[in-house]
Amino acid sequence: MSHNTFGHLLRLTTWGESHGPAIGAVLDGCPPGIPIEAQELQQHLDRRRPGQSRHTTQRREPDEVRILSGVFENDTGQQITTGTSIALHIDNVDHRSKDYGDIKDKFRPGHADYTYWQKYGVRDYRGGGRSSARETAMRVAAGGIARKILDGVTIRAALIQVGPNTINRDNWDWSEVDNNPFFCPDPEAATAWEGYLDGVRKSGSSAGAIVEVVAENVPVGLGAPVYGKLDQDLASAMMSINAVKGVEVGDGFAAAALAGENNADEIRMGNDGQPRFLSNHAGGVLGGISTGQDVVVRFAVKPTSSILTTRQTIDRHGNETEIFTKGRHDPCVGIRAVPVGEAMMALVLADHLLRHRAQTGTKTGATG
Length: 368
What we know:
Order of helices and strands: EEEHEEEEHHEEHEHEHEEEEEEEH
Largest sheet: 5 strands, antiparallel
């Protein structure tokens, strides 16, 4: 199987399966001299870790990351990157493969079982194998390193919709995101989602979600025409996250309903002598290149396909049958996609920052 690597100058390769002994990653292209400790990566992994509330899978994985290579102590005893490949490793400690024994020959509707079988003629049925969202733990770990490359850039994400239930954007408060199990910026919506997801879980079903990722203090000039657009790579990165079915940048699909004079972000000169945009319908990207405004991306996550409700399917021998999935699954997989979205934003921006430096050095255009 190919295509386990993405990025250009900053390249991430991940490996491992949901029920294998471990998962891991190799991050290549990181500049030397960046201070990094495993605990800095762990704080991001802890936000994604399963089993932290009744609204996520009860699989108990500590997700303790180890840095195996690419770092060394400098003269002051500080651990820094060496410029060589950084290997990351996480043990799988709480997989229950027996939960999948009864359905090993059946294709779960909504999962990659059928397509993997048709493409490769073999598939790891234990928790989805390589198609499992377990792999995204390594993206989060690598994203922690990418954040260190993006000095001064702040990346945050929030869950803004669960099922049909949306937040009130007037209540948006970033400080609330870590005060509830949903990464929700609206405390009133978070309270309502508790009861909604309890009902979904008890009925044996699942719910979808929408995640919004915002990067602040992004420098002007990241991205390139025509096939290296920043928003193009962000869309690809977000779409690569398990269960994501749609991505938009800025106003996204809502821009189709706007008039031209409303959609185009007007520009004036600020008191500091720098250009100032009067709005951000573009989501911080114009012509595939960052404007210096917040980069705003949203992605839609489908309902978890592994549910207790009986569904119609076929097995690999072509027999019609029925299936319901036992085991421990997220009633809303979009919740734990929040830190994954942050990581993918960080990895793409860091890659583009390195590409920008390689092509232009420190020179950029000047206005005023």
